[in-house]
């Protein structure tokens, strides 16, 4: 658990374990569109930390309430979690992300605890796939963000799937700009998908793309999972793909069986998040159902 008082010096290098020592299960994606209260954030973050041994929480979507990121920082501080923050582009093609970027950066500079809690700032989700910005401009945004946050020691990345890079000629400029590679791993949507137990080749193909082009950078599976149900806006591209609770469970169990392999990957091994904390946040992907009950036993390995 963190100290009660905010450090007056700048011990960031010794505050967290080196990323090169981190692999296996890291924590949950957590949707914030509901603009949860500080009390709710703290309750959920403590649950992640103590029930599941989470180290981090990866934010998903956006809340534009004034002071919301300060609540995130406070809840994460109290629970001992690090935060993968997110500049959310959304799906409307507008420029509201610019205000979100500036608001987040202001909070990171103003809140004395923010630099101790915030492990990375992500541009996302899937900005390349959604053609939000040309890859050259996205790379420039990453570089500018790194300069803005350099005094705080907070790295910057992009939250994206392999295909988003590939359909942009590899977008090597973005891969070169980011500090870590934060990967969307959703094999259910592959044209080759069937059941989760057969998905390793899909996962490995995408992972090796990033290993081959990432120049040794740390890799994370952040938006990562298999749905228990589909929704009208999230249909599989394979008629053989099966969405049910058993397959959601089996996908995470599969990652557990590959722990030793993932540990050997460049950058100190691959760490992964479960997408997402609750079905109330995104139908079908939650570890918890709509009644706040676990859908299956979930105790993934944090080391091997």
TrEMBL record:
Its annotated compartments are:
Cell membrane
Q: Does the keyword Cell division apply?
A: no
Q: Which GO terms describe its cellular component?
A: cell surface; extracellular region; fungal-type cell wall; plasma membrane
Query: A biological process (GO) annotation for this entry?
Result: cell wall organization
Catalytic activity reads: Hydrolysis of (1->3)-beta-D-glucosidic linkages in (1->3)-beta-D-glucans
User: Which InterPro entries does the entry mention?
Assistant: Beta-glucan_modifiers, GH
Q: What is its EC number?
A: 3.2.1.39
Keywords, ordered alphabetically: Carbohydrate metabolism, Cell membrane, Cell wall biogenesis/degradation, Glycoprotein, Hydrolase, Membrane, Polysaccharide degradation
One GO MF term, please? glucan endo-1,3-beta-D-glucosidase activity
Q: Say where the protein is mainly found.
A: membrane
Q: How does it sit in the membrane?
A: Single-pass type II membrane protein
Family that this chain belongs to:
Belongs to the glycosyl hydrolase 17 family.
Q: According to its UniProt entry, what is the function of this protein?
A: Glucanases play a role in cell expansion during growth, in cell-cell fusion during mating, and in spore release during sporulation. This enzyme may be involved in beta-glucan degradation. Active on laminarin and lichenan.
> What's the name of the protein?
glucan endo-1,3-beta-D-glucosidase
